[in-house]
Amino acid sequence: xxxxxxxxxxxxxxxxxxxxxxxxxxxxxxxxxxxxxxxxxxxxxxxxxxxxxxxxxxxxxxxxxxxxxxxxxxxxxxxxxxxxxxxxxxxxxxxxxxxxxxxxxxxxxxxxxxxxxxxxxxxxxxxxxxxxxxxxxxxxxxxxxxxxxxxxxxxxxxxxxxxxxxxxxxxxxxxxxxxxxxxxxxxxxxxxxxxxxxxxxxxxxxxxxxxxxxxxxxxxxxxxxxxxxxxxxxxxxxxxxxxxxxxxxxxxxxxxxxxxxxxxxxxxxxxxxxxxxxxxxxxxxxxxxxxxxxxxxxxxxxxxxxxx
Length: 308
Ligand code: NAP
What we know:
Helix content is 31%, strand content 29%. It is built from nine helices and 15 strands. The longest helix has 15 residues. The structure holds NADP nicotinamide-adenine-dinucleotide phosphate (NAP). NADP nicotinamide-adenine-dinucleotide phosphate (NAP) binds next to helix 1.
C-alpha cells in the first residue's frame, strides 16, 4: 500500500513532542511539508501559511492541524476545500457548530475528518470500558489536577476566550469518561473559577448525572503543585475501579489489572490511516459538548489573578 503524503500545520510543542515521532515511526505516512508562522520541521518543505503550502505542494493528501483551537476552523476549511483528509488536534475547534460544519464539508467532499482525542488511546481505557460495561455504575469521581506553569508555560492562547483554560486538560478526562461509561451523562451544575485577569477558567467543578441518577463529579484544577492527579474512580455493583495516570493504569478492587506504557499518538495516527483507507470519518463531539454545557450552566467565580 502506498504511503499517505502528510503535512503538519501549527508547529509547536505537541508537534515536536508527539506528532513528529509518531509519524516518523509509521510507514503509512510520508511527511512532505509543514506550515507555521515561525516553527519549522527539518528536512521537508516549510511554508509560512497553509495557503502557500497547499498551492506549492499539491501532492499533500492529508493535513494535521495542531495550532490552538481558536484558529483550527479557518485552516480546516482551506484543507477540506483543497480535497485533503484532515486530522484535528484536540479540542477539535472553539465551538460545536464550527466542527459540525467541518464534518458536513468533509462528507460533501468525500474526504476523512478525524477529531482526535489522544487520551482515549491511553493503554487502560479500553479495559476500563470493558469492566464498566458489565456493571451498574453508582458513582464516579474525576480528579484532573495539574500545574499549569509546568505544562503550559507562556501559552497565551490557552487563557484567551476559546482557549478553554483548565478545560484544555479537563477535556481529556471527559474524552475518557464518555468512552468508558456505558450510558450518556449530562451536567446538572458547575462552578468555574476565573482569575480576575484572564478570560478562561483556572479551575472547574462539575456535577453530572444520567437517567438512572448516577452521581458523577469532576474536579479540574490548574493550581496543583507537587504530585499531579489524572484519576477516574468509580463505585459499581462489581466493586471499585481506579483508572489512574491519565488512563495508563487500571486497578479493580485495589488490584492493578492493566498497566502499559502509553502509545497515544502512534495509535491516533494508526486510526487516521485506517479512516483514510476506509473512506470514513470519526467526529465525536461529546467531550466538547460537556465543556460547552459547563460554560452554559456554570456559575462564574472570580479568583486571584494568575501570572506566569
Ligand atoms: P503551542 O505550542 O502554543 O501552539 C502550537 C503552534 O500553533 C505554535 O507554536 C504556533 O506556531 C501556532 N500558533 C500559535 N498561535 C497561533 C495563531 N494565532 N494562529 C496560528 N497559529 C498559531 O501549543 P501546543 O501545546 O502545541 O498545543 C496545540 C494544540 O495541541 C492545542 O489544541 C492543545 O490542546 C493540543 N495538545 C497539546 C498538548 C501539550 O502537551 N502541549 C497535548 C495534547 C494536545 P507558529 O508561531 O509557528 O505559527
